[in-house]
């Protein structure tokens, strides 16, 4: 399986105890069915390798994981720093105006006032704000992902309808 068919869950940050457990810091707030999992895909030298779970305990934003066939501290320490992934189909489905970044790739963004702006090039995730990046006429346009701006996500048409704040789009296109 390749990373483009997976989503990032988190990173193994340290070993836990003496029996081969690891601490997985969960960085993906969208995923909360962690205790029902059978495996994680760990990034081992740019290849996703399945590691099967023997035991897992979820607490706050961490999971304490014991993998099958890794029963020593030495074996577990080899996994520290590795990123954990899961297949996209394990993400709960979103509806309404909520969406995952990967879900809206190539959706057309349509503004109430300006009409078609272009396709989603990328979703840029910042700690305080996520942005839709559109490239229009070789210029970058950034639209904040906010309930007051995103009016409709139409999955059938593959369109995102927005009402951009006055002057926002002009700021990018007229410079």
Would you kindly provide a written description of the structure presented here, covering whatever features stand out?
- By secondary structure, this protein is mainly beta.
- The protein folds into 2 domains: 88 residues, Elongation Factor Tu (Ef-tu), domain 3 (Beta Barrel), CATH 2.40.30; 72 residues, PRC-barrel domain (SH3 type barrels), CATH 2.30.30.240.
- 6% of the residues lie in helices and 48% in strands.
- It is built from 2 helices and 12 strands, in the order E-E-E-E-E-H-E-E-E-E-E-E-E-H.
- It has a 6-stranded antiparallel barrel. The chain has a 6-stranded mixed β-sheet with strand order 10-9-8-7-12-11.
- A hairpin with a 3-residue loop joins strand 7 and strand 8.
- The longest helix has 6 residues.
- The chain is elongated, with a radius of gyration of 20 Å.
- It starts with 5 loop residues before the first strand and ends with a helix.
Write the layout of secondary structure elements.
Blueprint: E1 6-16, E2 21-26, E3 39-44, E4 47-59, E5 62-67, H1 73-77, E6 83-87, E7 108-111, E8 115-125, E9 130-136, E10 139-144, E11 150-154, E12 159-162, H2 168-173
Parallel strand pairs: 7-12
Antiparallel strand pairs: 1-2, 1-6, 2-5, 3-4, 3-6, 4-5, 7-8, 8-9, 9-10, 11-12
| H/E element order | EEEEEHEEEEEEEH
CATH superfamily of the largest domain: RimM
Look at the structure and give the mean pLDDT.
90
Count of separate DSSP helical elements: 2
The gross shape turns out to be elongated
Radius of gyration: 20 Å
Approximate helicity band: under 10%
How would you classify the helix and strand content by structural class?
mainly beta
């Amino acid at each position: 399986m390749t990373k483009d068919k997976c989503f990032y869950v988190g990173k193994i940050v340290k070993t836990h105890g003496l029996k081969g457990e690891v601490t997985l810091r969960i960085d993906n707030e969208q995923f909360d069915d962690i205790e029902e999992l059978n495996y994680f895909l760990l990034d081992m030298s740019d290849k996703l390798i399945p590691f099967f779970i023997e035991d897992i305990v979820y607490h706050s934003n961490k999971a304490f994981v014991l993998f099958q066939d890794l029963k020593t501290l030495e074996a577990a320490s080899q996994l520290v720093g590795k990123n954990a992934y899961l297949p996209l189909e394990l993400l709960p489905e979103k509806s309404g105006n909520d969406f995952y970044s990967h879900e809206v790739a190539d959706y057309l963004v349509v503004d109430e006032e300006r009409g078609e702006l272009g396709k989603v090039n990328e979703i840029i995730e910042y700690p305080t704000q996520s942005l839709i990046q559109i490239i229009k006429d070789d210029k970058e346009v950034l639209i904040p992902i906010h309930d007051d701006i995103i009016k409709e996500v139409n999955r059938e048409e593959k369109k995102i309808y927005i009402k951009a704040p006055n002057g926002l789009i002009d700021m990018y296109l007229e410079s």
